[in-house]
Design goal:
Layout lengths: L1 H24 L19 E4 L4 E4 L4 E6 L2 E5 L17 E2 L12 H7 L65
Antiparallel strand pairs: 1-2, 1-5, 2-3, 3-4
Length: about 180
């Protein structure tokens, strides 16, 4: 009988230790993304003026207007799939703690217009934190959204050049 009680107590302790492990796994939910601005605590939302969208830190979701409705998604809409979250400005909404930050959208889009840049921001993490090892040779693509002169074909429309000093339109290819 003593052995049976010891086994029961042992199983109970074992089960309770597993329960604690499950609780500790969920501690990281709601952490700001690595591209978020450093130096802020107790923040629930960012407003991204360049794309007129919000980011919900607690649920790790973007909130954006689509067809007159506010959509929550883990990904940005297709037209912004190449948006550089590390270099884009993030407005930290310290004063809002509800579930619908877009109730102030008109105020936010007027005050924080597309292209708005407040004080300089440093990201929480590095861009390379989220890259796989197989991406290390691709560069960090810091020129997203900027005027890239080199589109992979040196301005020749993908055709081979007979004269390396000129493209197929008769213009020089000097570096600018």
């Amino acid at each position: 009988m003593k052995t049976l009680k010891l086994i029961a107590v042992g199983l109970f302790l074992f089960a309770s230790s597993l329960t604690k492990a499950q609780v500790s796994i969920n501690v990281n939910i709601g952490r700001p993304p690595s591209w978020g601005p450093a130096g802020y605590s107790n923040v629930e939302y960012y407003y991204l003026p360049d794309i007129q969208a919000y980011y919900d830190i607690r649920t790790s979701q973007f909130i954006y207007l689509n067809g007159g409705r506010w959509i929550r998604s883990r990904n940005l809409p297709g037209q912004y799939r190449n948006y550089d979250l590390y270099n884009g400005y993030k407005v930290v909404l310290n004063d809002y703690h509800g579930t619908r930050p877009y109730t102030s959208f008109t105020k936010h889009k007027t005050k924080y217009y597309k292209g708005y840049k407040g004080s300089p921001q440093r990201a929480i993490g590095n861009r390379d934190d989220n890259r796989g090892k197989d991406n290390k040779d691709r560069g960090n693509n810091d020129n997203r959204g900027r005027d890239n002169k080199d589109h992979g074909n040196n301005g020749n429309g993908g055709k081979d050049n007979k004269d390396p000093g000129k493209d197929n339109r008769g213009q020089g290819n000097d570096k600018h």
